[in-house]
Amino acid sequence: MNRPSTALLTDHYELTMLQAALRGGTAGRRCVFEVFARRLPPGRRYGVVAGTGRLLDALEAFAFTDDELAALDAVVDDATLAVLRDWRFTGSIWGYAEGECYVPGSPLLVVEGTFAEAVLLETLALSVLNHDCAVAAAASRMTAAAGARPCIEMGSRRTHEQAAVAAARAAYVAGFASTSNLEAGRRYPIPTAGTAAHAFTLLHDDEEAAFAAQVASLGAGTTLLVDTYDVEVAVRTAVRVAGPGLGAVRLDSGDLLVQAHQVRRLLDELGATATRILVTSDLDEHAIAALAAAPVDGYGVGTSLVTGSGAPTAGLVYKMAAREGADGRLVGVAKNSADKVGVAGRKWAMRRSGPDGTDVAELVGVGPGRAPAPGERELLVELVRAGEVVGREPLDDARERHAKARAALPDQATQLSRGEPCLPTVYEEHR
Amino acid sequence: MNRPSTALLTDHYELTMLQAALRGGTAGRRCVFEVFARRLPPGRRYGVVAGTGRLLDALEAFAFTDDELAALDAVVDDATLAVLRDWRFTGSIWGYAEGECYVPGSPLLVVEGTFAEAVLLETLALSVLNHDCAVAAAASRMTAAAGARPCIEMGSRRTHEQAAVAAARAAYVAGFASTSNLEAGRRYPIPTAGTAAHAFTLLHDDEEAAFAAQVASLGAGTTLLVDTYDVEVAVRTAVRVAGPGLGAVRLDSGDLLVQAHQVRRLLDELGATATRILVTSDLDEHAIAALAAAPVDGYGVGTSLVTGSGAPTAGLVYKMAAREGADGRLVGVAKNSADKVGVAGRKWAMRRSGPDGTDVAELVGVGPGRAPAPGERELLVELVRAGEVVGREPLDDARERHAKARAALPDQATQLSRGEPCLPTVYEEHR
């Protein structure tokens, strides 16, 4: 596959740091960098890992061809350009499996390689994970609130055109049933879906003509948009045109709670008892929850989903945790300034469950780790071994993992009110 | 240039609406779609147009090749696939020039073409504009708050990896001086810049060794990061290593206001009177404004910028304003439901200034428009004429236009407190 290089999706300073380290003789020092969240977005109870599969793809496409080297000509010196020409990540990466949940301090990604290798991945790894985790975390709250009712991802128009494709993917990991984004449907095994826009109704001389054209072409199983003018009139027209076998109607404005009840009653009166009601219109997890008792059959979610429902970035950081010292052994390191103190040393992580299978704690330790005790499971899986991607998996595996991981969290995890992380992060002593 | 097709960066329903319109005989009706904001994000006083150049590029790459058609095989019928194979936008587009300011109701983009042409552009146009305008609006508030001090865009790691490149571009339009994003530096004429990360200091056996390596490789004009351990110690070390010609120091944590004063005094004491102070650490426009009286020489801005500083999407919509009727004449149309009422008919727009050159109103009218009176200027420029892009311009033109447009707004426009749109939108009667 001839993918465009991802090597310039990174920050200027990573290249100049490489240059300085090459000149100073430290570029070959073995290092461990880790990705983690210092805190969750305000009020959130858990985070969701997403983007891992995309990151592995991006890593394989990270190479400096003539084009990239030409662009860096004014950024770094010739010695650095020569190193970049042969640059290849030969290190190893472990991470929380995609779809897994996390809390502050969870070491979501552990990157081991030379400084020259690992420092260049900072921006790309964070871009992918910060975006995709933010969307997945919002999506997970929405699908939890929706229960058995399907959520459809419809946010492409409210975010960058390529971010939209990644957002559809992250939402699917977190339980969304489908997406409106056609590129996401091409690139990933995600079903695509759609209804009709007000423009389609407005294009026609009247609503009946619009509905008739849609049904003639797409069948009675289609979803008709019934709020361009008067909802009651539109529902009557819809059933008259499509018959009682009409697939669904969509409501996109007004008081959805009241309207859903009115429309359900009307559909039932008209004999369209199996016609579903799909609602859209600036829904977020709170609006979805508020409609739980309404006769709604599905939620189309846009803006809130793709913007992380108030938390558009996951706030993950990529920090050096250890590096080789003069004696060749790894030394734990951490920034130690005013308000950003790190935990030095390479981490391991396990999740501990109680006797009923409900999770009770996130265990994070420094050092080589230990075997899991009963009720504990290891969280870091191998993603890249000596430069080779070994952690690729079908997207549905991540989706199933998320459903399982969320179900194992304590009950308060899926409460929508503002709260604390649902699991304490327990740091174990170095062993 | 062999760009990948952008045709699937769109929503499923646009394709099925096309199918239904083809079958119903309405796909060839001439239509006018418009992009506008119903409202600005809460408290904002103006919006900023950005992304126009990117949208024109994306439009030229909008084509259905065999790959796209294969992906749509299960979405639409064969008759629609045949139409898509030959699909080409042959209509015309007008828009507010890139960098221009806007308020609610401003017709930012006016797309005229057949339904088949114009309906397919909805998602792509909105994705580009909603993202780029959101970033530019935040950036404009930041550069206004920073005054003559440069702002550096450093947010790539907090947003999707391709959105990051677009964000750097939008920030530049709105007055940012440079970006850390190397791909943005390759793709656009934007200077790239960078300092060093804490990891670089931690890589070394001590801070002095790190600073010495950086200065040896990058020269004394480099920017040294001085908050990995103790700021005062680091500043003394920095000047000892680099000499009083040290370019700059960066502060990334703690109370930046207090520290900036302390560091300035110390630098001056050490004779490094020309060494600049660059601050970073979750800055937004309010933090920048709060540092106005501090001895700070530049701002590095990340998260807040790329996430639109609380408004990660501009909330622009793409609505049908007029379409051909049975008699071949354009008829104004608009949705007329519960809480989303549109203004029917194709719009024109002008900005009116008072005698001192300060803008006083946004004039929006329906119909063919009229000649501008003294103190009025037309806002819509031609971007695409009969399918050919005619509105491409150098990025610096957009940047200069923004500086000028913002300067002409009433004084309260750049107040950071929550307020109303700085210009009233005055709808003129149809002429």
From TrEMBL, chains A, B:
Organism the protein comes from: Angustibacter luteus
Protein known as: Nicotinate phosphoribosyltransferase
Family classification: Belongs to the NAPRTase family.
Region of interest (Disordered), ranges: 397-431
Reaction catalysed by this enzyme: 5-phospho-alpha-D-ribose 1-diphosphate + nicotinate + ATP + H2O = nicotinate beta-D-ribonucleotide + ADP + phosphate + diphosphate
Function: Catalyzes the first step in the biosynthesis of NAD from nicotinic acid, the ATP-dependent synthesis of beta-nicotinate D-ribonucleotide from nicotinate and 5-phospho-D-ribose 1-phosphate.
A Pfam match: NAPRTase_N
Tagged with keyword Magnesium: no
Keyword Phosphoprotein: yes
UniProt modification remark: Transiently phosphorylated on a His residue during the reaction cycle. Phosphorylation strongly increases the affinity for substrates and increases the rate of nicotinate D-ribonucleotide production. Dephosphorylation regenerates the low-affinity form of the enzyme, leading to product release.
Pathway(s) this gene product operates in, as recorded in its UniProt entry: Cofactor biosynthesis; NAD(+) biosynthesis; nicotinate D-ribonucleotide from nicotinate: step 1/1
Keyword annotations of the record: Glycosyltransferase, Ligase, Phosphoprotein, Pyridine nucleotide biosynthesis, Transferase
Molecular function GO terms recorded: glycosyltransferase activity; nicotinate phosphoribosyltransferase activity
Segments forming domain Nicotinate phosphoribosyltransferase N-terminal: 8-130
Domain of life the protein comes from: Bacteria
EC numbers on record: 6.3.4.21
Membrane-spanning segments: none
Listed InterPro entries: Aldolase_TIM, NAPRTase_N, Nic_PRibTrfase-Fam, Nic_PRibTrfase_pncB, Nicotinate_pribotase-like_C
